[in-house]
Amino acid sequence: MHPGSRSHTGALLLAVAAALIFSGCGTEREPSRGTRRSAAEPPRIALIMKSLANEFFVTMAEGAKAHQAANSGTYTLLVNGIRNESDLAQQVALVEQMMAQGVDAIVIAPADSRALVPVLGKALRRKIVVVNIDNKLDESTLQQVGIDIPFVGPDNRAGARTVGATLAKRLQRTDKVAILEGIPTAFNAHQRRLGFEDSMRGAGIDVVAVQSAHWEQDEANTVAAAILREHPDLKAILASNDNMALGAATAVRQADKTGQVYVVGFDNIPAVHQLLQDGRVLATADQHADRLAVYGIEYALKILRGETQPHDTQTPVDLITTAPH
Q1: More confidently predicted of 166 and 2
Q2: How many CB atoms within 10 Å of residue 206?
Q3: H or E element: which one contains 46?
Q4: What's the CA gap between 237 and 162, in Å, rounded?
Q5: Which class is domain 3-153+289-316?
Q6: Do domains 3-153+289-316 and 156-286 have the same CATH topology?
Q7: Residues 33/101, Cβ–Cβ less than 8 Å
Q8: Taking the alpha carbons of 211, 48, 135, 73 in that order, is the dihedral positive or negative?
């Protein structure tokens, strides 16, 4: 991607992020702090996501708002997100803010699998329905706090294993590869790394480096460049999200190794489609960002209506090897 293009895209995404962080869905009423809806009002659902500088979550927000617009008489929606993947304090504050506004349900993609559990336990004690999407909350931490929160989302390990298996077909036994993982305390980061490792181990391929780039494109570029210098015979980089795949692909190009070092990712964000078409990214996984929040919202509505008891629900994840037409 051309540097000027990245700058323009980043500015646009941050503008969208700011708009989403400070505004909810246009059809909602602004409730008084600490109030709950009357029986005649539709339930209020808060969607709390991770970084809105990431196209994946911008797409998630757009999908959720489109669903609410088509079901405006069924529920109202408040859309929230944080500015970067590691701003845990802001995400905790958003949960507190949504509780103060008296929402009926919180659908959350937690930035950390452990740090958000205590405040979500507080929400449950206030009789607010909580549904976990995208990044699964840590089971042992949930048990320690004494709560149970259903996870609605894909099998990240299986998705990463499929992407890795596609890469393995291009490699030889004993070839060297590296993995860029997300935030190590995030369950989905851990699962995607394990899925990549599963596929490489099964193909007899040597994983010579595993380093975190915290889901961020610029950090991935720096980390990948260092790995390429340290391992000049590296054959591939497996990035645990497409933001990091973009950074890795740029590092490969800057090292003049395009066509020599493969890159794969995860998420199928629009920014990666041109690289799929050009062959600079070999494969990614689509967990349907435009539907992922909708799955959680629909599940929260079922719980609110008493139509189901909370339990984990798996959603689709598909291998993508070509850009959409």
Answers
A1: 166
A2: 14
A3: strand 44-51
A4: 15
A5: alpha beta
A6: yes
A7: yes
A8: negative
Counting beta carbons within 10 angstroms of the beta carbon of residue 323, is it exposed (0 to 12), middle (13 to 18) or buried (19 or more)?
middle
pLDDT at 24: 42
Q: Tokens for 73?
A: 């008489």
Q: Which of 1-10, 53-62, 96-105 has the lowest mean pLDDT?
A: 1-10
What the block records as the tokens of 198 is: 């599963």
* 161: Cα within 13 Å, side-chain hemisphere: 12
- Integer Cα distance of 273 and 322 in angstroms: 8
**Residue 174 in 3-state DSSP?**
coil
**Tokens 């540097």 belong to which residue?**
3
Is the distance from CB of 144 to CB of 115 less than 8 angstroms?
no
Q: Of 4-18, 90-104, 196-210, give the lowest mean pLDDT range.
A: 4-18
Query: Any residues with CB less than 8 A from the CB of 305 and at least 6 apart, and which?
Result: none
Query: Three-class SS of residue 37?
Result: coil
Q: Which residues contact residue 15 at a Cβ distance below 8 angstroms, ignoring those fewer than 6 apart?
A: none
Of 50, 49, 58, 63, which Cα lies nearest the Cα of 10? 58
Residue of 133, 85, 92, 132 whose CA lies nearest to 111: 85
The answer, yes or no, to whether residue 214 has pLDDT greater than 80, is: yes
Question: Binning pLDDT at 50, 70 and 90, where does residue 37 land?
Answer: low
Say how far residue 254 (Cα) sits from the centre of its chain.
27
3-class SS of residue 137: coil
C-alpha dihedral (170, 176, 177, 178), degrees to nearest 10: 180
CB 68 within 8 A of CB 77: yes
Assign domain 156-286 to its CATH architecture. Answer: 3-Layer(aba) Sandwich (3.40)
For residue 138, count other CB atoms closer than 10 A to its CB: 20
Give the Cα separation of 4 and 159 in Å (integer).
Answer: 32
Domain ranges for the chain, please list them: 3-153+289-316, 156-286
d(CA 220, CA 132): 27
φ, ψ at 237 (rounded to 5°): -125, 125
